């Protein structure tokens, strides 16, 4: 998810999280076909391409128009790269239409990128005022402003609790409803602050609210679930899927999904107990960045990498 980027005129510098761990775990065949489903600015993708042969290929997928443009730019320098714009839940149709049905590996680095966060016009940041948008693809779906200006109290409380783990969800939701209509990120921050709810001194008051609204607007948990299913479907025997997550709720979804593939639950009455029906094995069960990486890139502190390999 969030990685460290620094804007330098139009140049964006990027420090991908757990880059070598991800690439080394996912790369199994130098000549293979790979998918980076969260291309961003291509930090993981470039590291993978350096390890692949000229015969290999890499589909660079992202739903964000600027990330897609970055993938198009890279494809002009490297003919192994095929840029694609779309979402995880479309992976099966996108790959089939591109006649890329069998993958040796797939990388997913979940969440928003720093270029998205750092651009006030995208509406992801509570630090800079901008339109209250928060869509990773601003050309599709409903903006945060539109949703917040129509949602009812109980739905808003549920989103803030479930996706933001916000303990003051009810007070904050009531304040948001009271301050409507909201059009800017600054107005949302003001609504959160005027709820006068108890604060966590280590976090900005609006951190959890922005996270929850963003995850809801982009349907992130459902996308994660469907992306893992679609990606696993396309893996060759011995192919690997690596997922990097940054929130406990996402860690748990990946853990549960991977566990289900490694050790599926077998109904008691079936005569197959004792045999292995697993369709996958663990490659990396749970890897966190080391203290040196956390120091260089504080945003990597909550990262968790999980990788499985498909077995027949
Ligand atoms: C943390 S960034 C990836 C950074 C990238 N690994 C790099 O090294 O530059 C996550 C990217 O995934 C994209 N993304 C998030 N959810 C997506 C989805 N469901 N479908 C397609 N792209 C998605 C975002 O637009 C964002 O560009």
Mean pLDDT, all residues: 91
**What's the number of extended β-strand segments?**
9
Q: What fraction, in percent, of the residue positions are helical?
A: 40-55%
Instruction: Please outline the major beta sheet.
Output: 7 strands, mixed
Give the helix tally: 13
Corresponding CATH superfamily of the largest domain: Vaccinia Virus protein VP39
- Quaternary structure type: single chain
Shape: globular
Radius of gyration over C-alpha positions, nearest whole angstrom: 20 Å
Model description:
This protein is an alpha/beta fold. The protein folds into two domains: 4-114 and 220-310, Rossmann fold; 137-217, Putative methyltransferase TM0872, insert domain (DNA polymerase, domain 1). Helices cover 40% and strands 19% of the residues. It has helices at 19-26, 43-51, 65-77, 91-97, 114-118, 144-148, 153-164, 169-179, 185-193, 207-217, 220-234, 248-262, 291-296; strands spanning 4-8, 11-15, 33-36, 57-62, 81-85, 103-109, 235-245, 280-287, 304-310. Strands 5-4-3-6-7-9-8 form a seven-stranded mixed beta sheet, sandwiched between helices. A two-stranded antiparallel sheet has the order 1-2. A hairpin with a 2-residue loop joins β1 and β2 (11-15). α7 crosses α8, α7 packs across α10 (207-217) and α8 packs across α9. The chain starts with a strand and ends with a strand. Residues 1-12 have low confidence and may be disordered. Bound molecules: S-adenosylmethionine. S-adenosylmethionine is lined by residues 1, 3, 14, 16, 38, 40-44, 61-64, 67, 87-88, 109, 111, 113, 136, 223.
């Amino acid at each position: 998810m969030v990685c460290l980027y620094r804007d330098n005129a139009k140049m964006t510098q990027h420090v991908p999280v757990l880059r070598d761990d991800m690439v080394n775990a996912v790369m199994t065949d130098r000549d293979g076909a790979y998918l980076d489903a969260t291309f961003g600015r291509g930090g993981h993708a470039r590291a993978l391409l350096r390890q692949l042969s000229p015969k290999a290929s890499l589909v660079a997928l992202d739903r964000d128009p600027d990330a897609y443009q970055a993938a198009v730019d890279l494809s002009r320098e490297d003919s192994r790269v095929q840029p694609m714009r779309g979402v995880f839940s479309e992976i099966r149709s996108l790959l089939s239409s591109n006649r890329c049905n069998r993958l040796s590996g797939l990388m997913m680095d979940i969440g928003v990128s720093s270029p998205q966060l750092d651009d006030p016009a995208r509406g992801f940041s509570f630090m800079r005022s901008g339109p209250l948008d928060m869509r990773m693809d601003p050309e599709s779906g409903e903006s945060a402003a539109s949703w917040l200006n129509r949602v009812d109290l109980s739905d808003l409380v549920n989103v803030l609790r479930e996706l933001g783990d916000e303990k003051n969800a009810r007070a904050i939701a009531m304040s948001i409803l009271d301050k409507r209509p909201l059009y800017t990120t600054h107005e949302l921050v003001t609504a959160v602050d005027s709820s006068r709810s108890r604060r966590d001194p280590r976090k900005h008051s609006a951190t959890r609210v922005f996270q929850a609204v963003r995850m809801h607007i982009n349907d992130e948990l459902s996308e994660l679930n469907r992306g893992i299913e679609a990606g696993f479907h396309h893996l060759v025997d011995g192919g690997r899927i690596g997922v990097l997550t940054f929130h406990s709720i996402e860690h748990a979804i990946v853990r549960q999904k991977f566990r289900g593939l490694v050790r599926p639950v077998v109904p008691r009455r079936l005569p197959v107990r004792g045999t292995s029906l697993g369709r996958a094995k663990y490659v990396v069960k749970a890897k966190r960045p080391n203290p040196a990486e956390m120091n260089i890139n504080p945003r990597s502190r909550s990262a968790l990498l999980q990788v499985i390999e498909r077995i027949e």
